[in-house]
């Protein structure tokens, strides 16, 4: 028989409810990020929109992911009062996770490669997080697992990004973009362009486009030779990057659990020199600095626009401004830093300017 004396709410559950309430309050206080329209006079009939994800309180699109990962950990009973939180991160995720850990009053450790941009390390520390810097980037997952074995809650951005986000709706980035496009001349974009770090953003957008039964194609813009590039061609999950990249947050060395190749229509490779030339150009066009992956995606947008123009197609292209450029003051925005790494942006700068002026200049065949 059933007892009428129900056990009291466990004290642990009361803390979880309080933490979830704080996340709900944070969400209610937050506004959506702006969808900026960038005029391209050389591309009549083709409209380019850039979603400014740097406007989140923690400075990047990883604000969305961090919120989802904390919700996932709390609702799965994995995170408790006073528990240390840990993740493996090249920076942007760590900054957003440190921001949410502070909101919930939890200690936070970011395991990151020692070569991470110094500005990002300072941002994590300023939010009260601790940075565990690892010399060899390949050791990062093992060091993070060590912290988890000692009792920390492992948020696991790479393992969980694709499932922690509610891709059917609930303020995911795809729902937000399409809502903001509703009153534009071409409300159903011809293309949405993003890049792949965890793969969470591309998986969410690709799934949502199918869910909403839209014709919009999804393009993933990636540093040349990244694992996403190599893997997508044959849906090969064992693929490895054929070259490293200077662009942080994307261009992963191996195929991550969150890469959903099946929902991606096109992958465009962008050399690092082109991405870096593009962030300087974006600063001129928008009056603000954005990070390297925004440049990678901007180059892909121009290629798609040129291809659309060449075959007389009209319509809209939407891409992302993923994080703030201030984080890269000592790297991508220091000409000496990338010159010392053999990068010459001048040819790409000239080429991108020519494309913006003439609407032509990319010769590669396109779909
Ligand atoms: C993580 C990240 C991306 C890619 O987003 P994912 O959803 O993780 O694939 C792009 N740009 C920057 C700066 C990032 O930090």
Automatic annotation (TrEMBL):
| Cofactors required | pyridoxal 5'-phosphate
The molecular function GO annotations come to: cysteine synthase activity; lyase activity; pyridoxal phosphate binding
Keywords per UniProt: Cytoplasm, Lyase, Pyridoxal phosphate
What gene does this protein come from?
A: cds1
Q: Which InterPro entries match?
A: Cds1, Cys_Synth/Cystath_Beta-Synth, TrpB-like_PALP, TrpB-like_PALP_sf
> What name appears for this protein in its UniProt entry?
L-cysteine desulfhydrase Cds1
Q: Which GO terms describe its biological process?
A: L-cysteine catabolic process to pyruvate
Please tell me the species this chain comes from.
Dyella thiooxydans
This protein's pathway: Amino-acid biosynthesis; L-cysteine biosynthesis; L-cysteine from L-serine: step 2/2
Q: What is the superkingdom listed in this entry's lineage?
A: Bacteria
The residues forming a coiled coil are none
Question: What range(s) does the Tryptophan synthase beta chain-like PALP domain occupy?
Answer: 33-323
